[in-house]
Amino acid sequence: MNFKTIGIPTIKLLVIAAVITTLLFLTNNTTEAKIAQNQADANVASRKEVLPDADDFDEKTVNVDGVDYTYYEAKNGAGYVFSGSNKGYGGAVVAMVGISSDGKVVGVKVTEAADETPGLGAKWVATDASGDERRAQFIGDIPEGGSFAVVKDGGNIQAVAGATITSRAVTHDVNDAIAQYNAVVGGAN
Fold first, then answer.
1. pLDDT single digits (tens) 119-168
2. Which are the contacts of 145, defined by CB distance < 8 A and separation ≥ 6?
3. What is the torsion angle, in degrees rounded to the nearest 10, for the CA atoms of residue 188, residue 145, residue 103 and residue 99?
4. C-alpha to C-alpha distance for 22 and 4, rounded to whole angstroms
5. SS3 93
6. What count of Cα atoms within 13 Å lies in the side-chain half-sphere of residue 119?
7. Helix (H) / strand (E) containing 133
8. What are phi and psi of 37, to 5 degrees?
9. H or E stretch covering 84
10. DSSP per-residue string spanning 16-82
11. Labelling 48: which of 40, 78, 97, 172 has CA 20 to 30 A away?
């Protein structure tokens, strides 16, 4: 074994690895702030989607049953945006819920449901009319007792056929938002 057969290829490999590592580091540093800004912009757009009358938001915290939740209060008094996260069929199902200052659910947007039943659970996330129709079931007054339930559980929310677990998760997300709202305004509906 001599230096030409082992040493030179090893040095070449180390140089290539160092160059690639440096390029990845520089790319990450260059794009990290832009990615964070894009995510923040998308979150603001989602908040405005579920609470369209809001102008801007203040981030706040509320404690419900010993757990702190972050929520957003509209600066113009239009209402609040809360999030819920519950286990669905294949992982977390996260929904953002807008509740007006007079206690009406005005918007629901499922922001995460990646591992749900393919083609079925994703219907809650769909941006077409079917997704809007499903989420519209929550729009309006908070029900007596302060929570929604899917039809199979004695409620009035139509589950997606074949994706009842996802439908329950979205319903629980909305109920979590209602609980947070009640904690913020100091009452129960």
1. 666 666 655 555 677 888 899 998 888 889 988 888 888 887 777 888 89
2. none
3. 110
4. 27
5. strand
6. 1
7. helix 129-136
8. -65, -40
9. strand 79-87
10. HHHHHHHHHHHHHHHHHHHHHHHHHHHHHHHHHHHSTT---EEEEEEEETTEEEEEEEETTSSEEEE
11. 172
Q: Which amino acid belongs to residue 61?
A: T
Residues 61-117 have pLDDT tens digits of 999 989 999 999 999 999 999 998 888 887 888 899 999 999 999 999 988 876 666
User: Measured between alpha carbons, how far is 95 from 86 in angstroms, rounded to an integer?
Assistant: 9
Closest of 67, 40, 68 to residue 56, by C-alpha: 40
Residue type, 107: G
CA 58 → CA 25, 38, 96, 152, distances in Å?
Answer: 34, 19, 16, 38
Cα–Cα dist 134/21, whole Å: 47
Tell me how far apart the alpha carbons of residues 171 and 183 are, in angstroms, rounded to a whole number.
19
Q: Which residues contact 155 (CB under 8 A, 6 or more apart)?
A: 148, 149, 171
Residue 35 in tokens? 């990615």
For residue 42, what are its two tokens? 């998308």
Only one residue has tokens 């922001």, namely 111
Residue (of 133, 68, 73, 125) closest to 98 by Cα position? 73
Among 80, 78, 41, 89, residue whose Cα is nearest residue 59: 80
